Amino acid sequence: MKDRRAQALQAWLRHQPPKIKAFMALVSTVAALVVIRMVVYDHDNLFIAAEAVHAIGISVLIYKLATEKTCVGLSLKSQELTAIFLGARLYCSFVMECDVHTLLDLATLTTTIWVIYMMRVNLNSSYMLEKDNISNLYVVVPCAVLSLLVHPTTQHYMVYRIMWAFCVYLESVSVLPQLRVMQNTKIVEPFTAHYVFALGVARFLSCAHWILQVVDTRGRLLTALGYGMWPSLVLLSEIVQTFILADFCYYYVQSVMGGQLVLRLPSGVV
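The chain above was modelled as a monomer; its predicted structure follows.
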């Protein structure tokens, strides 16, 4: 009976117009934020949870590469972009804060570099170069230019503020090459799907952290981040990276509920 109800709900959702789906996604997001605010006392833990979920996603990739001996379906360019923004964030964290976030970033960066090594050296023959066709320059250069124009106005050295802005902007779009690979193949094998879903969850938790912090401080957090366009762009970056993955996460959950091991994406998704 429950399976029939779930299938009926999925069928109903599939036939809804895009505007209705967007409205329902917005309502669901607000409801999730309300629940998180009621359940999680210290909202700083959300950011730690986001980093932990990202690390879990990388661990799934390591398991895939170590056991299946193939990197089919993975974007090397997304892993390289991830290593770049993690390296920049790790350096900024070390010189500006040096706390538990520094250790989490170090662990995630180390595993990401291992994944890149495996894809470039040991498993290069299975790498889908023709599908991974977004140039990293098209992603890195705009983020670098934007970080020069809009960055924090804190008391830290200019180079640290620019690097901080750069890693925020780059993180928000680093998954684009991976989404392009999935768009080109249309079929996503389980471990890659688990990894991308983990990224989506991590992005949502990070976005929830910032939104709830702004709500709790009644906007004072925005002033603490600096003045001008920077506070708004920080929040916008968090929201953008969440909604970039929202569509994929919807089909992932739908696939899991349907008991499917391989995720098949409809046309137009991601």
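The CA atoms of residues 86 and 124 lie 23 Å apart.
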